[in-house]
UniProtKB/TrEMBL annotation:
Entry keywords, A to Z: Membrane, Transmembrane, Transmembrane helix
Keyword presence, Transmembrane helix: yes
Protein name (Swiss-Prot/TrEMBL): Arylsulfotransferase
Alphabetical list of PANTHER family matching this protein: ASST-DOMAIN-CONTAINING PROTEIN (PTHR35340:SF5), PQQ ENZYME REPEAT PROTEIN-RELATED (PTHR35340)
Source species of the chain: Aureobasidium pullulans (Black yeast)
Pfam family, one: Arylsulfotran_2
Membrane-spanning ranges: 487-507
InterPro entries in alphabetical order: Arylsulfate_ST, ASST-like, Quinoprotein_ADH-like_sf
Amino acid sequence: MTFEWGLLGRYPQQSFKSSPFQPPRMNTVRWDEQCAQGYTLLSLRGTAVSSPAGIMLDGRGDLVWMDETFGPYVMNLKVQEYKGEQYLTFWSGDISLGFGLGTYYMVFNQFSASKTLENDFHEYAITADDTALLTSYDTIITDLSSLGVQGQGWVYDSLFREIDIETGDIIFEWRASDHFAINDTFYPIGSAGRGPEAPFDFFHINSVDKDEDGNFIVSSRFLHSIVCVSANTGGILWILGGRNNDFEDLSDGSATDFAWQHHVSVQAGKRLSIFDNAAYKKWHEELLGDNSEISRGMMVQLDTSNMTVELVHEYVNPGSRGSPQQGSMQVLDSGNVLIGWGYHGGYTEYAADGSILCDTHINPAVFFPFGFVHSYRAFRTTTWVGRPNTQPDVYLNPSDGCALVSWMGATEVTSWILQTAEATSGNELQFASAVKTPKDGFETEIELPDGEYDYLRIVAIDKNDNVLASSRIITANKGTVVSSGKFKFAIVTAVFWVMCFVAGISYQKRLRVIIRRGQQKVMGSSWLQRWRNGRRSSTAKHEEEERLYNG
């Protein structure tokens, strides 16, 4: 309850001695051993997140990998296959009005990132043909009279492209404005569209996938619709949900009443998985019927011959909450389902039948409505193997009687061996194994061995007792520390006060000379008058700026 009621703060974080990173302190509300397999991938941001980051956690919520070097935002972190190899892919860039302009990166298992394609953050799906599906936004001018706005106006058009990753060539491109009317939207235009600085987003594309026939499945958040686009002609083959729904709902409306949805994915056997935000249904109660605003994952069965749809399973938010934006649904290899709650900082794993297995919160539930911490999507991988080309990091303070070790991104470590060596006249140290300790979370504590030794290092061992890497050699009686932001701040602060002290002494000496010359009064009045004049000028300028701003 301490966590969930916010008594640990808006964004509780962990800290380590061997690493400067501060990942979230996860709260596992419900747990089942089935959730222990693989790694969870999040893209953290929010008003309480000072350094937005991509992050990988194990089944217990312990840190595996984290990177804060990209930004200002990181989105859509997941593992994808390209030309037979596994890559971490993510988007990095700036976000504006619900979409963004940035770059997608592909990271190999040694965690070296290669820049790939520039586009919007919503989707970067690598296909079985080693092409990429990307979403994009473009400003166009069109008639807004159907929305009650006189004359022409500015609109964000939604696009997607299929691109050759190797060459960057566009294979296929599609625009929403070529196929949909502006007034198909559910999103109120408000004051948007009157100028180029604030175009109206009528469609809002937020996911695209390919079905078994090679056609494209597109999610439109603001049309409350899922659209099948022909790969041959670009024409609309069918529409699920929204004002122009083509399907008979065999589930009394429960398969077509999704609203403001995200992350629609193609599943085997003509099924679709959908993250239904369900928020703001009350705006359009006459069309959507159910006034519930509880977010859920959906599995629907399509019959495109008879044009029917049926809700097979739903995965309802365990706290009966509605997440107004973002979110994801992933069907795992085990058949379980992982739901990321987007704006509400958490994720839940379900059995295929909809029963809850595990529920994890990134930040306190009491703060969910405020967006302090959230992740655009949440993904799970069981295939990723991290083999960083760095050394393990060690913190050693000899007086503690123990060492702390971690290795960012490494997934194969099962134990650590602390080795010691004595100083010799030769150039090469002879290390001997002294202590073997099982890996325990991200940072493992190892008790220092008794006896005389001058140097130590810590070696990473895998499940077959193979040596993966070793830390740098550390002088046993001196130890080592990790330079953190707080440490650097302390150094800068100390230097500042030393400079102030030196300047004060210098000024004092100069003042004594002036006093001896009988000029104290002249200098004092001159200096004080200059300070007063400057302060009056500064205050007047600030007040004038305030009037201009508030006016």
